[in-house]
Design goal:
The protein contains 3 helices and 32 strands. With about 475 residues, the protein is mainly β. The strands form 6 sheets. Strands 10, 11, 12, 13, 14, 15, 18, 19, 20, 21, 22, 23, 24 and 25 form a 14-stranded antiparallel beta sheet that branches. Strands 1, 4, 5, 6, 27, 28, 29 and 32 form an 8-stranded antiparallel beta sheet that branches. The chain has a 4-stranded antiparallel beta sheet with strand order 9-8-7-26, with no helix packed on it. The chain starts with 17 loop residues before the first helix and ends with a strand.
Length: about 475
């Protein structure tokens, strides 16, 4: 028999003293604190939004409830001077006198700010930035940059002109800055019949009935005895029972005041379009009070997609047609005198620009019927129908209004999206924001809050929780 191998000695277990474990925990804590301080000092810093000058994109301290008539969310800013928050008004159906006394005050959005991005490049137009206010360097402000160094800035009809040229947005920027004004999914008890009229724009149109408006959708059927069907959005005030132009009132600021409301002209329409049957066409039109732009979609044929202005010959995208049995996401915008169209997120045409000389703007009338649609020889259903407007920059304050304001070679012109209630370059004694005073670019709303309710021992308790629906990137 082979000799047996000697057993391998087993080392005794190492016993760690309590002092060693404490030192390891302390070392890990120190490393965590050092890493946190490094990230906060050199890379990223949280920033709270106390006021509503950038609403609705960024929300300050506020109170929130649901409209008792249409259930749409209603958010109203909390005054910084400690006064009682005014009664709310629904931004969707216009319901007034919504009581906020029983609601909680909710802190404003918390942002994560990239502190290094402006070391690598300069701020861009339409970009949100955090900076030290030029009239009080102790206060950080968050605004949108609308004017760049060396430009002469003027605000005309809600739009931004630099050196006499209208500054237009990309489609992505239009989406980022849109302000909702109507959502078909939130309907009052008597439905939205008063805001959707069937027929032409010659005064003979009638409010839609249940054959057109039902199940939070618009049903347009022109496959039977009716070869064509038209539908128009009418901005009808449910309480005053009258048609009114869309204006720049923002529900965040409290009840509307007629003397402070300014007509708006730039709109974005979006929906999910179900093509259910037939061979024909579907058309969309948008108006800014001066011109009408139209998009015509063939259904089941091959005529091609058309995009035009007024009665001018349209541009043609040959070979395109909507197919029955499919659903398409449509977005159609007429903003900054520029036309955008997207189908399932893809733009079949480049942006179409219309003339935009400042002298044209006074000719635009108030717009109470911004959207019109129609169908021929086919049937379609529109879901998730929403209408929004663009930010309307009021020509208030001392700068950028009657005469252009000339920015220095290192200055930026900053404005809040909530133009009716924003202290910004329009009013500051020192309008231009020097590039050296920029702190960084917000890139994430990381802690939007809302009030939650839970039942404990038969009673309802209110608490603050994260509003996951508003957790998003800031572009």
């Amino acid at each position: 028999m082979p000799p047996s191998e000697p057993p391998v000695p087993v080392p005794p277990p190492r016993l760690e003293s309590p002092g060693t474990a404490v030192r390891r925990v302390a070392s890990a804590a120190v490393l965590f604190v050092c890493a946190f301080l490094f990230v906060r000092t050199m890379l990223v810093e949280p920033f709270g939004v106390p006021t509503g000058s950038m609403a609705p994109a960024l929300v300050g301290n506020h109170r929130e409830t649901a409209c008792p008539r249409c259930s749409h969310p209603v958010i109203v800013g909390e005054p910084s001077n400690g006064d009682r928050t005014p009664d709310a008004c629904c931004p969707n159906c216009g319901q007034r006198g919504i009581d906020l006394d029983a609601t909680w005050e909710i802190p404003g959005d918390r942002l994560l700010v990239d502190k290094n991005v402006f070391n690598a490049r300069s701020p861009r137009r339409w970009e949100v930035a955090v900076f030290r206010c030029p009239v009080d360097l102790s206060k950080p402000y968050v605004k949108r940059m609308v004017g760049l160094p060396g430009e002469a800035i003027q605000l005309v009809g809600g739009d931004v002109f630099a050196d006499g040229v209208l500054q237009r947005k990309t489609f992505a920027q239009v989406r980022e800055m849109r302000i909702p004004v109507f959502d078909l999914a939130y309907a009052p008890p008597d439905t939205w019949r008063s805001r959707w009229h069937v027929g032409p724009l010659d005064g003979t149109a009638k409010p839609a009935d249940e054959t057109v408006l039902r199940d939070a959708a618009l049903h347009l059927d022109a496959t039977g005895d009716r070869p064509a069907l038209g539908l128009t959005y009418v901005h009808w005030n449910l309480d005053r029972r009258q048609e009114m132009p869309l204006d720049d009132w923002l529900a965040y600021n409290g009840p509307p005041h007629r003397e402070k409301r300014v007509p708006v002209h730039d709109f974005l329409f979006a929906c999910d379009l179900d093509v259910t049957a037939g061979t024909g066409s579907f058309a969309l039109r948008l108006s800014d009070g001066l011109d009408t732009v139209r998009a015509e979609f063939p259904i089941g044929g091959a005529d091609g997609l058309r995009l035009g202005v007024n009665a001018d010959p349209p541009a043609l995208q040959a070979g395109f047609a909507l197919a029955p049995g499919r659903t398409y996401r449509l977005e159609f915008a007429f903003v900054d005198r520029r036309v955008h169209l997207a189908i399932d997120g893809v733009s079949p045409f480049p942006p179409m620009d219309l003339p935009a000389e400042p002298e044209l703007y006074p000719r635009r009338g108030g717009v109470s019927r911004p959207v019109q649609m129609g169908v021929r020889g086919a049937a379609v259903v529109l879901h998730n129908v929403k209408l929004a407007r663009d930010v309307h920059y009021r020509a208030d304050g001392s700068h950028g209004t009657k005469a252009p304001y000339q920015l220095a070679a290192d200055e930026y012109f900053a404005c809040g999206d909530n133009s009716a209630n924003s202290q910004d370059s329009r009013a500051w004694a020192i309008p231009g924001v020097p590039e050296r005073d920029f702190i960084g670019k917000p890139f994430l709303i990381h802690q939007p809050l809302k009030a939650g309710r839970v039942t404990v021992n038969g009673g309802a308790k209110t608490y603050q929780t994260v509003d996951w629906d508003r957790l998003r990137w800031v572009r």
